[in-house]
Amino acid sequence: MVVLTGAGISVASGLRTYRGPRGLWTEDPKLAGELVAGVDPQALWTVARAWRSEVARAQPSAAHRALAAYQSSLAAEGGTCTVVTQNVDGLHERAGTEGVIALHGALSKNRCSRPGCEGQAVASLDDVPAPPPCAACGAPLRPDIVLFEEPLGALEEWSAKKALRDVELFVAIGTSGTVSPASNFVRAAAYAGAHTLLINLDANGGSTFDEVVMGDAEVLVPELFA
Ligand SMILES: [Zn+2]
Fold it and tell me: How far apart are the CA of 149 and the centre of ligand 1, in A?
């Protein structure tokens, strides 16, 4: 089984979605403009610092916890449930899910802003006003997240595609299913012969799934995965 999650699964944790009413990008279009490839490291750091403090106050929702419990019960029966997420909030990991594939990176980590630097991603929640220097080359560190116009991490993309090669059930939660990579994932899962299910507030993009269940993730996920 492969589960793809988007911003909708973290709404009950107090985190806003990106698009749509009250979305981060909707309420503050300038913010989206600051999260583009090539942005000034200080500007990016300032945005990330505010975002990190919002995430630090959030707790995993009932949906995050239900998925973690489901993953371990399925493993006990010899199955696997791979969780792929578009979120950078780390709430799946905090709920206890193992091996999360974070397609858009992790807000809780930093890496060097200089392309090609070998400085590895390091956990850092240092609440400092300016980006600390890379230990390898001295360039400013940046949050280890995928910005607009940047490619996905090669390892994450490869891992997700590998999991989708022999999937029997594909579930997208809290994501519209219309934006890449979600749109590609549902097609890949269908090609592998999987049943495909969308759990989301609305049925946008639902026509590419076998089944759509509409409602709040924190209500539906604990019910459906129980
Ligand atoms: Zn460096």
Answer: 21
